[in-house]
Design goal:
Layout (H helix, E strand, L loop, with lengths): L2 H4 L3 E6 L6 E6 L2 E6 L6 H16 L8 E5 L5 H18 L2 E5 L1 H9 L5 E9 L2 E9 L4 E10 L1 H6 L6 E3 L2 H7 L9 E2 L6 H13 L22
Parallel strand pairs: 1-4, 4-5, 6-9, 9-10
Antiparallel strand pairs: 1-2, 2-3, 6-7, 7-8
């Protein structure tokens, strides 16, 4: 969906929940996507990458009318940086602010219309983030909201009968053999382009989602032994 069609001359989306962070800009009907090098560079590279992209397009942050951000679940640091950056840009420009769950963006991007998918992500410490969605013509329906689970709990539900969206780390954490799955999309990480398209559709319906990150579990504080 172009900026002209959505009524937004300059729209921006940030997706920083994974190790492949990205940003997408829709300016005067032209959509451009940029991927950052690594999750470790979120804080240092996000704004400079945005500044370079806007400069290339001949646009200014002051022209922003919509700022969207992926809300996870995912990396604690990435989600905090993405949400804070989006909030700052929206406040400075007066743009509308929209949060889009990152798993919904992954399902929207990687599932065929009418298909259902189970999104899995390694949450570490022996746990997984998972959610299930049905792809529609204009978005996704939530079948199972994002939650924390384990390989044992996942196995208790039986072998997945729908498309699985995961990367190698998630498959290992879930103890799933790709050969036993009916259909597998990997890696199936969310992109800022999908976040932007969902946000524009929701903005047209005045359904601006919360930008509160979906941490799903409390921070684990660890003390270092001396």
């Amino acid at each position: 969906m172009s900026a002209a069609a959505s009524g937004a001359e300059l729209a921006l989306a940030l997706e920083t929940s994974t190790r492949t962070p990205s940003l997408a800009v829709d300016f005067r009907g032209q959509r451009t996507v940029r991927f950052l090098d690594s999750a470790r560079a979120h804080a240092a590279d996000l704004l400079p990458a945005l500044e370079r992209l806007l400069r290339e397009l001949g646009a200014s942050p002051a022209q922003l009318t919509l700022v969207a951000v992926g809300t996870g679940p995912g990396s604690y640091t990435g989600l905090r940086v993405g949400a804070a950056t989006a909030l700052g840009l929206a406040r400075a420009s007066g743009a509308r602010l929209c949060g889009v769950p990152s798993f919904e963006a992954a399902a929207f991007e990687h599932l065929a219309i009418g298909a259902e998918g189970l999104v899995l992500q390694d949450a570490r410490a022996g746990e997984l983030y998972c959610a299930r969605y049905r792809r529609t013509a204009t978005g996704v329906d939530v079948v199972l909201a994002p939650k924390v689970t384990t390989a044992r709990e996942l196995a208790a539900d039986g072998r997945p009968t729908v498309t699985v969206l995961a990367d190698e780390a998630a498959l290992v954490a879930a103890q799933l053999d790709p050969a036993t799955l009916p259909h597998l999309v990997r890696p199936a990480t969310p992109s800022a382009a999908a976040v932007l398209e969902l946000a524009q559709a929701r903005a047209r319906r005045s359904e601006l989602g919360s930008v509160e990150p979906l941490y799903l579990r409390p921070f684990a504080l660890r003390s270092q032994r001396r």
